[in-house]
């Protein structure tokens, strides 16, 4: 864990005025955010607000048109390999190879993160056990249900014990029991010092597990503040004011 010259804990993740255009329009505009180790940030916004584009830039799948992203104090544009070792990413649709088994997926992801030999085997075993994938270990990914695919994608994101976990709609296709287990896993990761970004449409997920919430609208940051676990209605009001009124709500805040 790095510290600033004053002794304060330095952010694990720092976004400095990042922007990105997609399909001829500004998908993200001048976005600045920071995240500390062990902090859980909820990322909210209506469809098209820029959430997935933001997460793709953090994960290194897209390059910002301008601005910078620092992970562990290092500019990811200068050292893109950082994303393979420090970051675990679960996109909205987990990218899986239909012809590989669950166990083979985890071994491949572990190798991509630099794990080999006993370290790789131990990491894969731990991920399979944590996500309760033991009965599916030899099953091909192509025959998994959508919920099982989502759990495998999460296991692949966690296999190397990343410092930053980026989750894009992770509760998609999970049943209620699995959704509760996901909340427990997020809390467990945060307690161990992992920073988590959770993008979701479910306000209840944010109030259940997040310390902070950031709300995007038209690619711009409209709100960034702490989450009060017992005040779901306040977050709901803020979200819908921004979603319905955009710039006017932001100026009045």
From TrEMBL:
Domain ABC transporter: residue ranges: 13-243
SUPFAM superfamilies noted in UniProt: P-loop containing nucleoside triphosphate hydrolases
Keywords tagged on the record: ATP-binding, Nucleotide-binding, Transport
Family annotation (InterPro entries): AAA+_ATPase, ABC_transporter-like_ATP-bd, ABC_transporter-like_CS, P-loop_NTPase
Pfam family, one: ABC_tran
Keyword RNA-binding set for record: no
Leader sequence segment: none
Similarity comment: family membership: Belongs to the ABC transporter superfamily.
Full protein name: ABC transporter domain-containing protein
């Amino acid at each position: 864990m790095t510290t600033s010259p004053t002794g304060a804990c330095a952010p694990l993740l720092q976004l400095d005025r990042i922007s990105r255009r997609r399909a001829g329009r500004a998908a993200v505009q001048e976005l600045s955010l920071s995240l500390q180790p062990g902090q859980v940030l909820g990322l909210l916004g209506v469809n098209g607000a820029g959430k997935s584009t933001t997460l793709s830039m953090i994960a290194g799948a897209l390059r910002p048109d301008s601005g910078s992203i620092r992970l562990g104090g290092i500019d990811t544009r200068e050292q893109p390999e950082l994303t393979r070792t420090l970051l675990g990413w679960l996109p909205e649709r987990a990218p899986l190879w239909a012809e590989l088994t669950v166990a083979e997926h985890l071994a491949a992801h572990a190798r991509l993160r630099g794990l080999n030999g006993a370290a790789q085997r131990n990491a894969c075993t731990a991920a399979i056990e944590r996500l309760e994938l033991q009965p599916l270990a030899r099953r091909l990914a192509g025959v998994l249900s959508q919920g099982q695919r989502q759990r495998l994608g999460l296991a692949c994101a966690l296999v190397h014990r990343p410092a930053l976990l980026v989750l894009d709609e992770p509760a998609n296709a999970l049943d209620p029991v699995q959704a509760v287990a996901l909340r427990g896993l997020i809390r467990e990761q945060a307690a161990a010092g992992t920073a988590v970004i959770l993008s979701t449409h479910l306000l209840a997920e944010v109030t259940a597990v997040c310390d902070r919430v950031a709300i995007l609208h038209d690619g711009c940051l409209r709100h960034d503040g702490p989450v009060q676990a017992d005040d779901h209605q306040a977050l709901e009001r803020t979200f819908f004011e921004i979603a319905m009124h955009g710039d006017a709500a932001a100026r009045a805040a």
